[in-house]
Amino acid sequence: MKYAIETHDLVKVYDNNFKAVDNLNLFIENKTIGGILGPNGAGKTTSIKMLTCLIPKTSGEAKVAGFDITTQPDKVREKIGMVPQKVSLYEDLTVRENVELCADFYNVDQKTKQQKIDDLLELVDIKYAQDKYIKHLSGGMQQKTSVAASLIHNPELLFLDEPTVGLDPTTKRVLWDLMIDLNDQGHTIILCSHDMYEVDKICDNINIIDSGKVVASNTPQGLKDDLLRNREENNQRIRNIILDLEEEDEDANAEEIKELRASLTDEDEEITVLVSNITEEMINAVRDLDVVKYAEYIGNGRLNISLKRSETSVNHVITAILSNGGNIASIKTNDPTLEDVFVSITAKKRREIKDGD
Question: End of a domain among 183, 218, 253?
């Protein structure tokens, strides 16, 4: 089975004729960590509800763990676990009692149930609190309990909806490590989150959903590379138009040329170089490069540099420092973030919808 989740033109229309999901084509490979991003109202929640057999589809096809969500919903439910954003545990039961309740719901073999629970509580590092009531636990401990309960029937797929909202940075990292460990053990992880850093850090592939459709799908780095490529292609198109206008009549087209130049984006590349033995000679050597627009020494061996963007600009800086005896400890580039990608793609979709109106 190549795909843990596979949808073809999946549609959901509610009774008020609102189309929440519009021909969704979503593919998440088996035994990977797949991220799902999207603005509020994009159709993420409705899509997940259909994939977990909570609501029926209107049309299209979808398979989860190889089973059809319409004709084989019980098979799908056997193969999935769900960790909702709002922890749905019984507050007046203990950690262990909540997991036991889920075990009984899934008809886990009584002979092995207690050992399975022990193993899961150890896995998520909550066994030390197994006899504590849920209402007395922190948010992170409740989420760990929720994960243990969702894994009691050994599902192939685990859906997590905003699992780290409201948690402190340390607890977040514990849950990230847990997701990675579960994936290493063969579970497919489906992560829905608004935390761009979280998705960027742990997901193998990301699907961005907007207006009920998948509008982008790639690895985290692939999405960022696509944004850079699209920006450069757009800049090149604008430069070509500027050249044509200048050849036609530069004075007559001066105002339009000015507006076009102002619309050019990210022509410069910002980098920070840390040199352990930096000297004035190294700084001046960098400043003398044709590709360098400015270089500012900010102390502690750090040099902020603005470059004319090209494939070789950074190499010229490295050569200038090394040829003057410099020891480069690190280079930090100001590449697009996943948040930049998200804003660019969803803003473009909004413009397309507006233009269509």
Answer: 218
| 202 and 239 co-located in one domain | no
The angle formed by the CA atoms of residues 189, 195 and 200, to the nearest 5 degrees, is 60
For every residue of 310-327, DSSP letters joined together read: -TTHHHHHHHHHHTTT--
How many Cβ atoms sit within 10 Å of the Cβ of residue 219? 12
Task: Tokens for 199, please give them.
Answer: 């998705």
Q: Is residue 349 within 8 Å of residue 231, measured between CB atoms?
A: no
Indicate the pTM of the whole model: 0.81
Q: Which helix (H) or strand (E) holds 84?
A: none
* DSSP per position, 129-192: GTTSBGGGS-HHHHHHHHHHHHTTT--SEEEEESTTTT--HHHHHHHHHHHHHHHHTT-EEEEE
CATH number of the CATH domain containing 282:
3.30.70.100
Distance CA(42)–CA(143), nearest Å, equals: 25
**250 exposed, middle or buried (CB, 10 Å; 0-12, 13-18, 19+)?**
exposed
- Contacts (Cβ under 8 Å, ≥6 apart) of 135: 91, 92
> Residue 351 domain-assigned?
no
Residue 98 and residue 149 in contact, taking contact as beta carbons nearer than 8 Å: yes
Tell me the C-alpha distance between 331 and 219, whole Å: 23
Give the pLDDT confidence of 320-348 residue by residue, as tens digits.
Answer: 999 999 999 999 888 889 999 999 998 86
* Structural domain count, the chain: 3
Predicted local confidence at residue 239, as pLDDT = 86
The predicted-structure confidence for 246-301, as pLDDT tens digits, reads as follows: 888 888 888 898 888 888 776 678 899 999 999 999 999 999 999 999 999 999 99
- Could you give the CA distance from residue 256 to residue 12 in angstroms, rounded to a whole number? 45
Shared domain check, 148 and 113? yes
